[in-house]
Design brief:
The chain is of the alpha/beta class. The protein has 8 helices and 7 strands; from the N terminus they run E-H-E-H-E-H-E-H-E-H-E-H-H-H-E. The structure holds nicotinamide-adenine-dinucleotide.
């Protein structure tokens, strides 16, 4: 077992990627707390997989403080923090048509929420001298997106925040590790929605829209949540104990740009 008896706190834990990672961590011996704004789905999933569920809006710092204190009092500590909570925003609008309210919402959930998680949990890990934080960014932080600019900016922010926290967390030789994971296009509700929107804009069916979206990816197909869960498991486990401040792409090679030569 890769994460025996470790305590993991996962935000956005009822989503496509979060639920799969929660299952993988439990299978490998961790005690898992999943948190999400979606209480109904969270309660049902927790019952099904043997996790604990807390209702949690990651944009609320007070909730972070209460829930982290509750996790430590109920489970003794937090060894692993995985921050999946995120939204895609309005993907039909380019940068010039993005409403400021939508910009603020995407930044609040994807970036400020991740900052609050680091701010609340990392000091606890530093006191213990050990821990692993896994921030879920996106492959868009290595690419350009003229479309959902708020999403791209939020995820690039998560990548940089991760490096800042990694350096601060290692003060005094602490082995508190902080890394970011950058999925490409993985089959979940989020990318089903993106493909449905693309199909509508292009006037084609969803299979054609998906084929067009994935044509720039060497593997040509969407990844599956388990592909991300396997990477999260590696970063959560002691197998990655000398790894910090790094950005891991899990994208079927999508970030590679072939010169065509
Ligand atoms: N699926 C992909 O291809 C892909 C690619 C790159 C990055 N990501 C990132 O991975 C993460 C998970 O994506 P997913 O595909 O599982 O999406 P998802 O929509 O299935 O899951 C996101 C979860 O976040 C929760 N959430 C939304 N707002 C919240 C808030 N304010 N507080 C707490 N929870 C909140 C949702 O309820 C949902 O359960 C996101 O951050 C996403 O940006 C996904």
């Amino acid at each position: 077992m890769k994460v025996s008896n470790k305590v993991a706190f996962l935000t956005g834990g009822t989503g496509g990627l979060g639920a799969e990672a929660a299952r993988a961590l439990i299978r490998e011996g961790a005690k898992v707390i999943i948190t999400d704004v979606n209480e109904e789905a969270g309660t049902a999933l927790a019952r099904q997989i043997g996790a604990t569920f807390y209702k949690h809006d990651v944009t609320d710092l007070n909730q972070w403080q209460e829930l982290v204190a509750r996790a430590i009092s109920e489970h003794g500590r937090i060894d692993i923090l995985v921050q999946f909570a995120g939204i895609e925003g309005d993907i039909t609008k380019d940068v010039f048509h993005t409403e400021p309210s939508m910009w603020n919402k995407v930044i609040a959930i994807n970036l400020t929420g991740t900052f609050y998680g680091c701010r609340t949990v990392v000091p606890h890990m530093m006191e213990r001298g050990t821990g692993s934080v896994i921030n879920i960014s996106s492959i868009v932080s290595f690419m350009t997106t003229a479309g959902p600019a708020a999403y791209g900016a939020s995820k690039a922010g998560v990548q940089h925040l991760t490096t800042s926290v990694a350096v601060a967390a290692s003060k005094g030789g602490n082995r508190v590790r902080v890394n970011s994971v950058h999925p490409g296009v993985i089959k979940t509700r989020m990318t089903d929605n993106i493909i449905a929107q693309m199909a509508q804009n292009l006037g084609v069916d969803e299979a054609a829209a998906e084929a067009q979206l994935m044509s720039g990816c060497p593997f040509q197909k969407r990844g599956m949540p388990v592909d991300v869960a396997n990477l999260v498991l590696f970063l959560a486990s002691d197998d990655s104990e000398y790894v910090t401040g790094s950005a891991f792409q899990v994208d079927g090679g999508w970030h590679l740009k072939d010169t065509g030569a």
